[in-house]
Structure formats: structure tokens, C-alpha cells
Design brief:
The chain is mainly alpha-helical and 251 residues long. It has ten helices and six strands, in the order ββαβααβββααααααα. It has helices at residues 44-56, 61-68, 74-91, 112-124, 130-133, 151-177, 181-194, 199-212, 215-233, 239-246, and strands spanning 17-21, 27-31, 59-60, 96-99, 102-105, 109-111. The strands form two sheets. The protein has a three-stranded mixed beta sheet with strand order 2-1-6. The chain has a three-stranded antiparallel beta sheet with strand order 3-5-4. A hairpin with a 5-residue loop joins strand 1 and strand 2 (27-31). Helix 2 (61-68) packs across helix 3.
Length: 251
């Protein structure tokens, strides 16, 4: 597991806030006046707990202890959790709010996965924010906690990956509909780069090229995807995908 945290400070007072990045890397950046607590002081177990709470929001102590220390007895796992909470509180006071049987990150800690989910919901409801509508705000992207192989990470990683791909495609569709072809193509290509064998993303790239009138680019994209699919998994694109260029290129 990656054990190198970002060096940043956190202030739990109302005017302070922090952002937790789980996509592409584990990283925390702080805003507001700091109180001197350093993330480099967080022990390995505390970083795992912070990431766990970043993914699950409010979690019971039993759930957190069982997930973070699955090979320990219940008593040992609970003891490890108490020690981790104490160490996290000592390094970054106020970062984790623990009361009774449950715990969570401080409400002013913004988590990129939460922002991605909120963006996906807004797009699904047809209510994007202004920055999203005009394409000036890139969606959070990256593999969830790369290099982390805990089961609680692995089981969520594919769901987050699919959420990112659907969000990139939805944003690309939105920009295509607005005639913002450059931004649409950038988003679609980001999805292709993330998952080259995903036909829906490749289809978007072709449609954008066609909308711009770049027939040669569209044909090249189709041919490249055909070769890639055959080389990697020995299958061919769907007829629907191939018909995208059939409409404009005689066979």
C-alpha cells in the first residue's frame, strides 16, 4: 500500500476546511488558517482510517474495525481502532468526529469521490452547475487509491471506475449538444484513455469527429478501435458502431 501522504495541515475550526483526494492518489490539501498539525505525522493506520471514512461517510466502530483489521479478533480490532483514533486525533485534532458507536470525517472535509457522485446526480437530473455546463470544471478522475489492495478498497474501486466513465461520457454528450466540440472530444478521449476497450466512449469520439465534419478522423478512430479490440480480446465492434461511418463512407 502507498504510504506516502501529502504534507498539509488541517484546521477543524469553522473557518478552516480541507479536501481529501482518493482518486489517483491519497492526498489532502488544507484551506484556512492552520493550527500546525501535519499530515506527515499521521501514522499508516490513521491514513487508512481517513480513507475508509472518506469512502463510507459515517461508519460504526464495529464496521470500521472489522473492515480495517479483518484478520484480527474483534477485541484486537477494536483496540487497534481506539489506538488509531487517538493517534489521528493527536496528529490532526478534529479531523475525525467520533461520538458513541459511530464516526465520520469532519463535515468541512471535502472528498473527491463525494463530489464525483454529486456531479453524476446533477447530470442525471439535468441540473449541472454553471462550471460543469460550460466545461470549465474537470470532473474528479483517476483510479481509486492506486496501490491499495485492501478488500474494502477493491470492492468499491470498480463501482467508482464505472461512475467516472459514465460521468465523463455524460459531460461529453452535454458539450457535444452545445456544439463545444473541443471540450466534448477532450472529455470523450479522457474516458477512452481510462478504458480503451469501452465501445460507448469510442462511439462518442467518432460522433464528435463526424459532428465537426472530420470524416477522416472518424474513420481513423473506427479503424483503430477495430484493431485494438481484435488484438486485445479477439472480438469485433458492434454493427451499431460500424454503421457510424457507414452513413458517410461508401463500402
Amino acid at each position: 500500500m502507498d504510504s506516502t501522504p501529502a504534507v498539509a495541515a488541517y484546521d477543524a475550526r469553522p473557518e478552516g476546511s480541507a479536501s481529501l483526494r482518493l482518486l489517483g492518489a491519497f492526498e489532502v490539501s488544507a484551506r484556512g488558517e492552520t493550527v500546525g498539525a501535519r499530515w506527515s505525522d499521521l501514522p499508516h493506520s490513521a491514513r487508512r482510517l481517513v480513507a475508509f471514512l472518506g469512502l463510507h461517510g459515517t461508519a460504526t466502530r464495529d464496521f470500521a474495525a472489522g473492515s480495517l483489521w479483518p484478520d484480527s479478533t474483534e477485541a484486537r480490532a477494536q483496540a487497534d481502532l481506539r489506538t488509531t483514533l487517538w493517534r489521528a486525533g493527536r496528529a490532526c485534532p478534529g479531523l475525525i468526529v467520533a461520538g458513541g458507536p459511530s464516526m465520520r470525517l469532519h463535515p468541512r472535509v471535502r472528498v473527491d469521490v463525494d463530489e464525483l457522485q454529486a456531479l453524476s446526480r446533477r447530470l442525471h437530473m439535468g441540473q449541472p452547475g454553471q462550471a460543469e455546463a460550460d466545461g470549465s470544471w474537470p470532473p474528479p478522475c483517476g483510479v481509486l487509491l492506486p496501490g491499495w489492495y485492501d478488500e474494502w478498497v477493491v470492492v468499491v474501486r470498480e463501482r467508482v471506475r464505472q461512475l467516472q466513465l459514465h460521468t465523463l461520457e455524460a459531460l461529453a454528450e452535454q458539450q457535444l449538444g452545445r456544439g463545444a466540440y473541443g471540450r466534448a472530444l477532450d472529455l470523450a478521449l479522457s474516458a477512452v484513455e481510462y478504458e480503451p476497450l469501452r465501445e460507448s466512449s469510442q462511439r462518442l469520439v467518432v460522433r464528435i469527429h463526424l459532428a465537426e465534419g472530420n470524416l477522416a478522423e472518424a474513420v481513423r478512430a473506427v479503424q483503430t478501435f477495430q484493431k485494438l479490440l481484435w488484438r486485445e480480446i479477439r472480438v469485433r465492434p458492434t454493427p451499431e458502431f460500424l454503421r457510424l461511418v457507414d452513413l458517410v463512407v461508401p463500402r
